[in-house]
Amino acid sequence: MYRQIVILTGAGISAESGLRTFRDQDGLWEEHKIEDVATPEGYARDPELVDRFYNTRWSQLHGGDVEPNQGHNALVRLEREFDGELLIVTQNIDDLHERAGSHRLLHMHGELSKGRCPRSRQTFLLKDPFGPEHTCTCCIPAQRLRPHVVWFGEMPIGLDRIQHALDTCDLFIAIGTSGTVYPAAGFVDTANHHGAQTVEVNLVEADRHSQFQYHLQGKASDIVPRLVDQILSGNVIKDNIG
Ligand SMILES: [Zn+2]
């Protein structure tokens, strides 16, 4: 039925695995100033503070009690069993999609598990938390790695590839995204413009709710497995997926 699917995932799917989100009530942005920990200027002022902030996130992610949930797992099943094209675009910087087993994945806001050379932009997998001892191997002298995270005022990663996928997809699904952060919030408009079916999975009504043709309200871990069943069985998605 569908040939090309683009799936956008956001904080909601990670929150169900127990990770703290940035934007919700009690979110991380209530405790930290965005300009201090999530801007290039903040990092230039105090790199140690920024490293500590992401280290806390890193430790939570690797603390042993955070695992992919049924929502992540269902997307792996889709990747394995779906015959057409699939691209998962995530706004999340955690590695829960990878841990579940997803490969056709693009981290548009970067990855907590990687550091990046500020000069060459080469990325390096981090086995332990951030610190000044993490330097690149691509430059002489070696450069201190910065978090491989897209900060406010920086360009998201892979926009050309995402745009191309949206231009040609016939199904666009947004899972657990607030719909407030551009350019991701505008992906649904692009997909609609190109005639794709657009489906939203969210615990609450998101800001860009009205842009989606279909709305499935509930937990990603509950709805996404059923959604994947529908797609794999060749059915068209409707408001009620049983
Ligand atoms: Zn380098």
TrEMBL record:
NAD(+) binds at residues 10-29, 91-94, 176-178, 202-204, 220. It catalyses: N(6)-acetyl-L-lysyl-[protein] + NAD(+) + H2O = 2''-O-acetyl-ADP-D-ribose + nicotinamide + L-lysyl-[protein]; N(6)-succinyl-L-lysyl-[protein] + NAD(+) + H2O = 2''-O-succinyl-ADP-D-ribose + nicotinamide + L-lysyl-[protein]. It comes from the Bacteria. Zn(2+) binds at residues 117, 136. The active site is at residue 109. Its EC number is 2.3.1.286. Binds 1 zinc ion per subunit. SUPFAM superfamilies: DHS-like NAD/FAD-binding domain. NAD-dependent lysine deacetylase and desuccinylase that specifically removes acetyl and succinyl groups on target proteins. Modulates the activities of several proteins which are inactive in their acylated form. This is NAD-dependent protein deacylase. The keyword Cytoplasm applies. It is found in: Cytoplasm.
